[in-house]
Amino acid sequence: MRPLAVNSLEANTLYVAFALLPLAFGVAWALAAWRIRAGRPRREAWLHSLAEVGAVVGSVPLLFLGLTSREGANALQLVPFVDLADLAGAGPRRIVEQLAGNLFVFAAAGFFLPVRFRLGLGAIAVGAVVAAVTLEALQFTLLTGRVVSVDDALMNAFGGVLAALASRPWWRRSRDAAEPRSEAAVLRSAGRDWRVTSFEVSRGTDRAARC
After folding, report:
1. Where does the sequence pass through the membrane (predicted)?
2. Would you tell me how many other CB atoms lie within 10 Å of the CB of residue 52?
3. CA atoms in the 13 A half-sphere facing the CB of 106
4. Domain coordinates of the chain in residue numbers?
5. 3-class state of residue 72 by DSSP
6. What is the DSSP string of 128-190?
7. SS3 call for 125
8. What are phi and psi of 148, to 5 degrees?
9. According to DSSP H, which parts of 20-87 are helical?
10. What burial letters (b/e) apply to 18-34, b meaning 16+ CB within 10 Å?
11. Rounded to the nearest 5°, which phi and psi values hold at 149?
12. Tens of pLDDT along 124-174?
């Protein structure tokens, strides 16, 4: 496994991503304001808006880096844990680059998607595995100079699942925020049913009196 040294493309991508964070927060604020004006509860509007923007902003730069070509020919490593075992004798920089680079690819999606959508940990794990395998397949078929490794896919998926576990306290908050609106809708529906029933009873009583 070759080290992923930080080159100019990677550095510039990270600089641009950090520079655009204020714009991303502005987009999240605009989405939340639009949802609040539409009648959504304030907490739900903010959680969903931040989750949507965070999933995109945290994933696109890393996917862009993962889908760029490098110098050299493609390599294929399909034996699990071989590349990870090679890291045991590697230097600290290489270990950090390999582990952090692979763990964070789908971390933003794993962290934010279950906050936004009603997804369980099993669905997140399956989605992370499918996404990781797809990324490795695209690297091998479309790009050059990439090492396509089973261990990379495993670390990509594991990073998404770990991030989902880290955001689990917010899953409940996001779902609880939507409950008052649902309960209100049920109460309104129950009120309409009661009024209709009362009207029908009164009509039946009047008819009986006339007879």
Report:
1. 12-34, 46-67, 95-113, 120-141, 153-171
2. 18
3. 28
4. 8-210
5. coil
6. HHHHHHHHHHHHHHH-SS-EEEHHHHHHHHHHHHHHHHHTHHHHHHHHHHHHHHHHHHHHHHH
7. helix
8. -90, 115
9. 21-37, 42-66, 82-86
10. eeeeeebeebbeebbee
11. -130, 140
12. 999 999 999 999 999 888 877 788 889 999 999 999 999 999 998 888 766
CA dihedral of 148, 151, 154, 157, whole degrees rounded to 10: -60
Report whether pLDDT(36) > 50: yes
Say how far apart CA 82 and CA 85 lie, in whole Å.
Answer: 5
Residue type present at position 76: L
Burial class, 100, CB count within 10 angstroms (exposed 0-12 / middle 13-18 / buried 19+): middle
Q: Which residue's structure tokens are 């959508």?
A: 117
The type of residue at 125 is A
Residue type at position 99: L
Q: Are 55 and 167 in contact (CB under 8 A)?
A: no
Task: Name the β-bridge partners of 193.
Answer: none
Q: CA–CA separation, 99 vs 111, rounded Å?
A: 18
Q: Do residues 114 and 164 touch, judged by C-beta distance below 8 A?
A: yes
Angle of helix 150-166 relative to helix 92-103, nearest 10 degrees, comes to 70
Q: Does residue 58 contact residue 112 with C-beta atoms inside 8 Å?
A: yes
